Every structure is written in structure tokens, then in C-alpha cells.
């Protein structure tokens, strides 16, 4: 009797152990985990071929392809939801904006890409490996992601252009002359800039197709972009773009560095450069809002400002200031231009006096006539006095 009981216990143990192995194996096959897919960026996911080629074990390589397919599918779902919600919000906002301006409603026409293949994750098995099923699946999803990416990039550009067209109609018919706003509504203004912020955020990501390669994006808990870094094949940082925000969450500035050196700053809204420029260029009727323009400050290899561009948020040029230096780094010319035609409206000619280390500054108007001149001990001194102008 004891022998029979012992036999039953042994048989039961063997069967239970076999079921445990089968269950564990099935769980492993259904899992998307892969040691080769750990927190990869979108660029790294799309470049999965390079990693897959280095994996010798057939099962590990195909498990990696399954994992990549699942991750790319999640990225596709993310952009469809995020940008789909943005599209809906912008359509509603644009509709209200058109109503306030008394304009006919613009009809947007865009056809998203359609695909016959729908992602359905399958367990890892030998027939799938033999038929390259998991590799083909990863290649297909990569293609779908890229096509969706390009579609949304085009859509965002379309909405952005039209929204800023409405803004120019609302704020001024001629940005180079300046006219009073058609209507004033603080709550609506706040809503406008909220939508602008969403567009700017997505435009920064979609700015350059080629930048997907070896690029990493860092965000805060509110999904705002904090930094974008570009790397070489050897993971050396070659370029970075850092973002700062106002207390209300709107983008304040973007600082771009190449090999650690600042090459450009983009300032959104009013700043010391734009206040000085607009104060001179435009008449008192020109009333720029705090956040309806941006300023691009460009630096030379010595980290000195060499030019400043003043733009609308849509990228249209309002004016510029250029700085010219001699071989010793002394400022010799400062030229102010207005409009897309770059008409000169103001010019400073500077000459350095070697003897006493002072500067002679001559200011000219748009006709080239001298309107003021002075000698200062340094260019940080006041260049001209208001009462002398």
C-alpha cells in the first residue's frame, strides 16, 4: 500500500514539474522582454537591424525582433493619441477664432496613411523563426511608424501656418506698419498661447528628419522637452538643445550648443533685444503682445553675438541686426534692417582709437545721413543719448 502511494506521489510530482516547465516556457514565449531592448529611443528602435545583426543566438535575435515590434507599436499608439487629440483641439480653437474674426471656416483636407497589416503579437515559436515572421513584422511596423511620422509632421505644419495666418489678421494686417488689434480678449489670448505652446513643442521634435539618428530627448513630468542631445556612433555628444519655460509653462528660450559652445539662442516673447529693436523700428501704434514674436541670437566662434533676427512665431522675418568685427575683434559696423527685403534703417560705424583705447561712433539713418556721433571709452558705454537723437 505504501509503495502504491509513493508511486502516485512520484508520478504527481513529475507531472506537476512538467506543467510548471511548460507554463514557464509559454510565459517566456509570450513575453516581450529582451536584454537588447532596454529604454531605447525611437531612433534606436528604428535602427534595430544594427543590433539584431550582432545577436548570434537565433531565439534571442527573434525575441529581440518581437520586442522591437511591440515597442514601435507603442510609439505608434502614442503619436496617434497625442497628435490626434492635438488635431481635435486645434480644429475647435481655429473654428472659434474664425468666428471671432468673421471669416469663413477653412476646410482642412488630410488623408492619413492606411495599412493592410494590423499588429497582432504572436508567441515566439520555431515556424515563425523559420519564416522570418518576427523580423518581417518589425520591418513592417518601422515602415508604418515612419509614414505616420511624416503625415503628422505635414499636418502640424499645416495647422501652424493657418493659425499664424489668423493671428496676423487678428493682430495686424501689415506687421511692418502696425495696426490695432481687431478684438481684445484676455481669456482667448491665453488659449491661443496654450495652443502655440503645443505646436512649438511638436515642431521641435519634428524639426529635422535626419536628427532622428543618434538623438535622445529628455522631458520633465509634464512632458515638456528639457533637452535634446545628438551623439556620434561612439556616444560622444556633438550637439545639444536646452529648453527653458516661463512660470505659466510657455516656452521661454532654446539654447543650442555645438561641441559645448553656444551657437544660437532663440528667445520667445519680449526681451532686451526685441524691446530695443521694436521701439526704434515701429511707430507707437505697433503694440506687440508679450508672446507673439521670437528673437534668434547667433554667436560667432568667440561666443560674441554676430547677428540677431526678429521673427514672427511663424518664422516670417520682421528685421535684423548684424555686427561686423575687424581682425582684432573690435566692432566696426552695426547694421539694423527691416522687413524681408532687408532695408537698412539704421547703422553705426565704429572706429577704434589705438592711442587712448576709445571708440568713435557714428550713427546714420536709413538715407546714410549722420544723425549722431560720439567718443566713448568702451562699447558697453551709452552709444547715444536720447535727447541728441
What do you see in this structure?
With 389 residues, this protein is α+β, with helices and mostly antiparallel strands. Among the domains are: 29 residues; 179 residues, no CATH class. 40% of the residues lie in helices and 24% in strands. It contains eight helices and twelve strands. A twelve-stranded antiparallel β-sheet has the order 1-2-3-4-5-6-7-8-9-10-11-12, with helices on both faces.
What is the topology?
Elements: H1 2-30, H2 42-46, H3 48-52, H4 58-101, H5 126-130, H6 133-171, H7 186-205, E1 215-219, E2 225-231, E3 237-245, E4 251-258, E5 261-268, H8 272-281, E6 293-299, E7 305-312, E8 317-325, E9 331-338, E10 343-353, E11 358-365, E12 370-376
Antiparallel strand pairs: 1-2, 2-3, 3-4, 4-5, 5-6, 6-7, 7-8, 8-9, 9-10, 10-11, 11-12
Helix pairs in contact: 4-6, 4-7, 6-7
Outline of this structure?
By secondary structure, the chain is an alpha+beta fold.
Count of strand segments = 12
Strand order, sheet with most strands: 1-2-3-4-5-6-7-8-9-10-11-12
**Helical stretch count?**
8
Proportion of strand residues: 15-25%
The biggest beta sheet is recorded as:
12 strands, antiparallel
Query: What pattern of helices and strands is seen along the backbone?
Result: HHHHHHHEEEEEHEEEEEEE
What is the C-alpha radius of gyration, as a whole number of Å? 30 Å
Poorly predicted tracts of residues: 15-28, 174-180, 381-389
